[in-house]
Design goal:
The chain has helices at 11-25, 39-42, 48-51, 58-65, 124-133, 146-154, 165-170, 204-210, 216-231, 277-283, and strands at residues 2-7, 30-35, 71-75, 87-92, 100-104, 118-120, 138-140, 160-164, 179-181, 195-200, 240-247, 250-258, 265-273. With 284 residues, it is an alpha/beta fold. It has a domain at 100-181: D-Maltodextrin-Binding Protein, domain 2. A hairpin with a 2-residue loop joins β11 (240-247) and β12 (250-258). α9 (216-231) packs parallel to α10. It is globular and about 55 Å long. 47% of the residues are buried.
Length: 284
């Protein structure tokens, strides 16, 4: 049996997909990678907010539901809070560093950036946290893959970037990082650093196989974070953040909601049994 693995075609998406195919091949399965251009990929110059929720996910889900692929690989942070009807999240790979990272010209840290410095990010969450910490900065939208954004930084279009530490690490580009941003300063996006594997809900055979590569601590954390997001009716387009950490059978979930300008930050945490991850997310 050859498992058709659907993914976006970016370098980062393919690097994450290679982790999934390696895990499947470790189970003795043959794999075929099927690249699919999503709405977000087809409109690289449109602001992410204008593309709507699920711009990097929906086309992969459609291919899955239509039977063109057997599973889809997603960055968990790109996924809406609710799982689409007829589909299931069958596995999460071990989470990479969930923090955000500052990459600045002149190797400057966030606190040392000059007033009026231009920071490139297309994320409302990052924008809000940046302005909460440094209201004297200018936050400017920026699209494109990691290499494109680094090129824009080098060309002087912006003074600094904020990117996911996980993506930089998976692309072996972490040496560009000026400052990993502590979660006390910038709480990560829901699911950031986690790779999610999605299947058809009725594909019991595939779900059973993927259960063998599912990383329980990552699943517990991301399930709680996604429940928090769903309870707020949000997607990655709103300034919502959450991070779950589990130890033994306990889960600590921290969440935050901000206004667009970072002038108001509501932040709280909850702790409880890891077995009640979804309930904890809803309660928070």
């Amino acid at each position: 049996m050859t498992v058709r693995v659907g993914t976006r075609g970016s370098a980062l998406a393919l690097a994450q997909t290679a982790l999934v195919t390696a895990a499947l091949e470790g189970l003795g399965l043959r794999t075929e990678v099927v690249t699919i251009r999503t709405q977000g990929d087809r409109n690289p110059h449109h602001p992410t907010l204008a593309l709507g929720i699920g711009a990097f996910v929906k086309d992969l889900e459609s291919a899955l539901l239509d039977g063109h692929i057997d599973l889809a690989v997603h960055s968990a942070k790109d996924m809406p809070g609710a799982v689409s009807e007829g589909l299931a999240l069958a596995a999460f790979l071990p989470r990479e560093d969930p923090r955000d990272a500052l990459i600045a010209r002149g190797n400057t840290g966030l606190r040392e950036l000059a007033p009026g410095a231009i920071i490139g990010t297309d994320s409302p969450r990052r924008r809000a946290f940046l302005l909460a910490a440094r209201p004297d900065l200018v936050v400017q939208g920026i699209r494109g893959n990691v290499d494109t954004r680094l090129h824009k930084l080098g060309a002087g279009d912006v003074d600094a970037l904020v990117l996911a530490m996980a993506g930089l690490t998976r692309l072996d580009l972490q040496y560009h990082v000026t400052e990993p941003l502590d979660v006390s300063l910038m709480l990560p996006a829901v699911g950031q650093g986690a790779v999610a594997v999605q299947v058809r809900g009725d594909d019991e055979r595939m779900r059973e196989r993927l259960a063998l590569v599912d990383h329980a601590p990552t699943r517990v954390a991301v399930v709680a974070e996604r429940a928090f997001l769903a309870a707020l009716g949000g997607g990655c387009q709103r300034p919502i953040a959450a991070l779950g950490t589990s130890e033994d059978d306990r889960l600590i979930l921290e969440g935050a909601v901000l206004d667009a300008g970072g002038t108001r930050v509501i932040r709280d945490a909850i702790e409880g049994p890891a077995s009640q991850a979804a309930d904890l997310g809803e309660q928070l």
